[in-house]
Design a protein that fits this description.
single chain; 381 residues; eight-stranded parallel barrel; 46% helix; Bact_Lucif_Oxidored; monooxygenase activity
Length: 381
């Protein structure tokens, strides 16, 4: 295996050069983004399986368990409340971090969301990472009677209000969308001054720059664009953090990515291609009625989502925008993503579409046993 070892050594060297330190641990987590309908898998079965996989993640040494907030559709709709699921995970696990990936301030009153997250932070004894997102599905905005063109302002105001509720007492808020106070949030957050905050960003440069300028951590997905474009956006984010006075390498960046590992590489590609195609079709279907609307704040989203249909799994694999194949092949793909993006935390979708539980479990076991050991181990949290 001299070739693989050379790639791994090069990876560690690159990370050291980028961050100016001796070694940056490579962390990996699992990411539940339900893309399944009741006809394909009942909700009770989906959540039973996800809870079992979360316990397995804790035992196998994964760094995090993440779940999204979406509504109504087979694309994400099984998860309208990440806090409920993660509270269940908290009672079954001991060390794995719990990530809301991500809550949507535009759809939640800041007092309600700040209180829910503070409760979860205490229940899990400070293992919570909080992700916030603008949301992007037009049907969700319609149902909540919120204009998509107000999403950025609602997003930023909601986060600012939540941070004040966590850090201050007798908070008075006089914003554009919410007014309240004076109020003091109880319980106080376990992690002081706040839990780690992540911002989900996809393709808009303004989102990456804003997240960096505020000193927030970042969530991104690589498969909606080219690696070169994504690398440019990450450079904007890191540059904005540096310009705002934050130390180089102090950020945490989570990368959402599909993962299917099997001892039989051909089977892994065949099965992953079927489930990934179903995932994409469900995403596109949620936008089909809105392809001509093109909201101002989401310029290019309709074209981006429609364009995903044109990307084959083989193309994604070639660019290391999915982790698919044998453990050896996936090791190479992991190394390749770090070469392009620097130090990021893969947050892996291992049960996308109506994938059988056994395949998701096998992916996790093989990745933990034969991929993780090839990279620097995480330091104790």
């Amino acid at each position: 295996m001299p070739g693989r070892r050379a790639r791994v050594s090069r990876l560690v060297y690159i990370i050291r050069c980028i961050h100016g330190c001796l070694e940056v641990p490579v962390l990996a987590g699992i990411n539940f983004f339900p893309t399944v309908s009741p006809a394909e898998k009942p909700a009770v079965q989906f959540f039973d399986e996800c809870l079992e996989l979360s316990v397995l993640a804790d035992r196998l040494g994964y760094h995090s368990v993440k779940i999204v907030e979406h509504y109504f559709y087979p694309y994400g709709g099984y998860s309208p409340d990440p806090v409920t699921f993660l509270a269940a995970v908290a009672t079954r696990t001991e060390r794995v971090r719990l990530v809301t990936g991500a809550n949507v301030p535009a759809f939640n009153h800041p007092i309600k969301l700040a209180g829910q997250l503070a409760m979860l932070d205490n229940i899990c004894h400070g293992r919570l990472d909080v992700g916030f997102a603008r949301a992007f599905l037009p049907g969700e905005f319609e149902a909540f009677e919120i204009s998509m063109d107000s999403s950025r302002a609602r997003h930023q105001e909601g986060i600012a209000a939540i941070l004040r509720l966590w850090q201050e007492e007798e908070v008075v808020w006089d914003g554009t969308f919410h007014r309240f106070g004076p109020v003091t949030m109880l319980p106080r957050v376990y992690q002081q001054p706040t839990p780690p905050v992540f911002i989900a960003a996809t393709s808009t440069p303004e989102s990456f720059v804003w997240a960096g300028s505020q000193g927030f951590n970042l969530m991104f997905i690589p498969f909606t664009s080219t690696n070169e474009k994504v690398a440019e956006l990450l450079a904007l984010y890191r540059g904005a953090r540096l310009a705002a006075g934050y130390a180089p390498g102090s950020e945490r960046i989570q990368m959402g990515i599909h993962c299917f590992v099997d001892d039989d590489g051909d089977r892994a590609r065949r099965e992953a291609a079927e489930y990934y195609s179903d995932y994409v079709e469900k995403m596109v279907h949620t936008w089909e009625a809105y392809m001509t609307a093109r909201p101002e704040q989401y310029a290019g989203y309709a074209d981006m989502i429609a364009g995903m249909r044109k990307k084959s799994l083989a193309t994604l694999e070639e660019n290391a925008q999915v982790y698919v194949g044998t453990p050896g092949q996936v090791r190479e793909q992991v190394a390749a993503t770090f070469e392009v993006f620097g130090a990021v935390e893969p947050s892996m979708q291992i049960n996308f579409a109506a994938m059988p539980f056994a395949d998701a479990r096998r992916t996790m076991e093989l990745f933990a046993a034969e991929v993780m050991p090839a990279f620097p181990e995480p330091s104790a949290a």
